[in-house]
Amino acid sequence: MLQRYLLLIPVFACIYACDNTQATSKAKAITTSATSAADAVKGMVLVKGDVFMMGTDDPKSYLAERPAHQVKVHDFYIDATEVTNKQFKKFVDATGYKTVAERKPKWEDLKQQLPPGTAQIPDEQLVPGSMVFVAPDHPVSKANISNWWQWVPGADWQHPEGPGSNIEGRWDHPVVHVAWEDANAYAKWAGKRLPTEAEWEYAARGGLVEKRYAWGDDFTPGNKYMANTFQGSFPDNNDRADGYAITAPVASFPANGYGLYDMIGNVWEWTADWYDVDEYKSMAHQLTEDPKGPEKWHNPEDPYAIQRVTKGGSFLCANDYCINYRPSARRGTAFDSGASHIGFRCVKDAK
Ligand SMILES: [Ca+2]
Ligand SMILES: [Ca+2]
Fold this sequence. Notes:
alpha+beta, paralog of FGE (formylglycine-generating enzyme), three-stranded antiparallel sheet, disordered N terminus, binds calcium ion
């Protein structure tokens, strides 16, 4: 049971972070780094808003992605790439910010996202850390994520595989092991914000209409990989046909039609919205303008977790396990859960 708790810790850890007001009061005050409008949009792309079909009616999709429904978004700027380790270090150096993965979890916070009656985890086992993908050396059941996810004390953005690892040589890779709170703190410092799910999905489509991928309907046009995903047999046999076993430097694959890199694959990306598995159904048969997501999370498959929407899939998305490397794909991720395959990018209003 303890192992199960430890696996759950990063998923449920640090609920105090849910309360933004409380979290902000604990952290060093973060002010924006941008000293001019030009600073704030450097590295960003202006996406002209329009009406688009969000979600999909594709039967080869997950139920939470359906149905396709009309949404209008207004103009916004979006980062051309995922936020990199180099960019995140600049933020940490300027603010002294400590990510959720670097803080000691508290039981009174953890238990709020655990089933009632869950036995208390001994305090000495509540240590900073994060979830790390560790490939097994043999085929395993895909029914149990603990076959490849390990809770690693000391894993954080500067130590992606845990103590002993570092990010030397990975400065242009996306930052990982960042929780939703961490992404928001960075965005605020940068004078930006996290994208809504609608903004993210509109941007990911790159101007294409109801295409399965960000580049069309063919996953590998001309036998060319267009995103960093997982090839082979998940999770033990990654044949790296796309050239990368884990994260790739940002912009290693072609940009989409809007000039945006890695909207699909590399790392999952946080959005601002709560995750409700039925949100797209609630938006059917109407045109919704600049939706900000539901008022509360809702996911019967993970009823105790407090989840935000992540989008785009990652280097771990495989065609035999998690086919989430598509613009309409969406996943609920516990707001306090960083992992070795979750990052983010920011947006900014165009005025
Ligand atoms: Ca890959
Ligand atoms: Ca991505």
